[in-house]
Amino acid sequence: MAPTVVLPLDPDRVRTRRWHATNTDLQTVIDQLRRLDRELRQHDVPGQEHPHPRNCVLNLVVTVGDQERAEACDRLVGHLSTMHPMRAIVVHLGSSDGRGTLDATIAAEAHRLFSGFPVQRQQVLLKVRGAAVDHTASLVEALLVPDISTFLWWSGREHLDQEALRDVLDFSDVLVVDSSYLERPVDGLLNLAGLMGGRVGIADLRWGRMRPWREAIGQFFAPRERRPLLAGLQQMSCEAAGVEPSSRAGAALLAGWASAALGWRFVSTGTAGESATEGLAQADDGRQVRVTLRSAPSEHVLEGELLAVEMTGQSESGPFGMSIERDRAGGNHAALTITLGAETVRQRLVLPGTEESDLLFHVLWRSRRDQVFESALAGASILLESLR
Amino acid sequence: MLRKQVPGYRQEPNVAPNSQTETYAAIKCQVDNWRWAETPFYIRTGKRLPKEVTEIRVQFKRPPHLTFGREAVRDLEPNSITLRIQPEEGISLRFGAKVPTPTLTIRSVNMDFLYASAFLLDAPDAYERLLLDCMLGDPTLFTRSDEVEAAWALIDGIEADWRQGKPPLETYPAGTWGPPGADQLLAQDGRTWHRP
């Protein structure tokens, strides 16, 4: 399990060099990056002493569509650097009209961690406008550190289509999105599903946000004596905040996770009124499981976030069920109810804060592929199709 | 083997408008002796590629049996040594290491030597050193004439075909690593180009 804390930078342990230029060119950016790096290294070791070698473990490329988001991503990436020494390239894409121009800001930082281990972060903010927007991939690729993983964080709301991704995926090892944030989350997730099985791994920050729900469901069935209940499941319903069918995308992902893990195969899907989608799945033993995805308006919970999950079934010892009901007032807790025959147990489930930096941190910590997520997405594809 | 020309090359100063000079070539060579049997040499060079970089990568064969389970080595690439000629001169060794977690997972990691980090000195420009050697009469870093002739003996045959338009000269998009044919050249051997 990855550490869960993203430490803020301690200014006493960080030395920074900065450079900025407007209307510059790529070669100048590369030269300045090397110069700042050399200056920091020379500061580390006076004289001829052997300095610490390169300590960069990944490239992180972030694409953003507006200035405010670019600044937010710049700060967020800065906070991640003590745990992930990296070269981050934040690309702020402007309008593609007119003459191509490139503005660049570089921040190179040398950190000395509490353990005494020196690490380094290099962060390049590129503001690309005009004709240069169509050549973003070649601008970025020249700045990547070779032989380490390159994560591409598609942080904008723009539609995630194959055309837009074609060039940038060429140099990426992992594509990171937050499907909750996309303008068209259902199409975005289906496009992600289309990338599965290729060279590039995929990750969704929404998947990390759903972790407490997945863990609670997993823990219910974890004890040995409860595992036979899995074979008696008859119904699963997931409710998400929102009105539009697209608000049920995350609910579909959770149902896809269950279906992939338990070997369910969807035999039919369809709408069930304006605010629900239903699917009928068949388990390996021929048993049928009804899956319902619902939307419910919520003032306090962001659109697309999960509000409730319920799983019920019948076992040899009687009916059973578990439900998770989120605090509708927007609190960071949920009510967990477990019913086993005549016995009912209620627990309070804490939903930890899911800051973007925490979620991204966990994605970067992983290796290239999250096979559980990819299986969940594959399992959810048929439900997502019905949400289009 | 394939040859290409980048669009706009013929519009550059002092270039003939009907120039047949290639600006990109990708070649697969094999040395026909027992020592280098089954060891292909892939060479790729071109103008207007995404990076200005020169390197030699020696990729080791994957052993027929990997000791750890398939899941443990999912992200493991073949071991390799990269000799970086420019711009960041150095040598990188890439090999598998166990990820420090309770589970058994092997992932590729780098061990890097960088001239700029190790010595904190600016190396002299390549021609600066060679010109000095010329003046001193030191031939150590120069290619010997028989080696040059052997190299041209290999290239002359290729060039003769190219002059006759075989294969035809086509273009490739600037800012990319070349045409799809270059990828296919390796794909038919089950390999891909390393991105420097």
Keywords:
heterodimer; A: 388 residues; alpha/beta; 8-stranded mixed sheet; 10 helices; 29% helix; disordered N terminus; B: 196 residues; alpha+beta; Dihydrodipicolinate Reductase, domain 2; 4-stranded mixed sheet; 4-stranded antiparallel sheet; 4 helices; 22% helix; 25% strand; globular
Write up what this structure looks like.
The complex is a heterodimer of chains A (388) and B (196). With 388 residues, chain A is α/β, with parallel strands linked by helices. Chain A has ten helices and 16 strands. Chain A has helices spanning 26-44, 67-80, 136-141, 162-168, 185-195, 205-209, 211-221, 249-262, 356-365, 371-386; strands at residues 14-21, 58-64, 86-93, 101-112, 118-129, 149-154, 174-177, 201-204, 233-241, 265-271, 276-282, 288-296, 306-315, 318-326, 333-340, 343-350. In chain A, strands 1-4-5-3-2-6-7-8 form an eight-stranded mixed β-sheet, sandwiched between helices. In chain A, strands 10-11-12-9-13-14-15-16 form an eight-stranded mixed β-sheet, with helices on one face. In chain A, strand 13 (306-315) and strand 14 (318-326) form a beta hairpin. In chain A, helix 5 crosses helix 10 (371-386). Chain A is elongated and about 70 Å long. The two termini of chain A are 35 Å apart. Mean pLDDT of chain A is 86; it is low at 1-6. By secondary structure, chain B is α+β, with helices and mostly antiparallel strands. In chain B, a hairpin with a 3-residue loop joins strand 5 and strand 6. The model of chain B has no long low-confidence stretch (mean pLDDT 88). In chain B, strands 3-2-1-8 form a four-stranded mixed β-sheet, with helices on one face. In chain B, strands 4-5-6-7 form a four-stranded antiparallel β-sheet. Helices cover 22% and strands 25% of the residues of chain B. Chain B contains four helices and eight strands. Chain B folds into two domains: 24-122, Dihydrodipicolinate Reductase, domain 2 (2-Layer Sandwich); 124-167, no CATH class. Chain A binds chain B through residues 34, 38, 41-42, 45, 48, 50-54, 135, 137-138, 141-142, 146-148, 171, 367-369, and chain B through 50-53, 74-75, 82, 87-88, 92, 94, 99, 105, 107, 110, 112-114, 116-120, 174-176, 195-196.
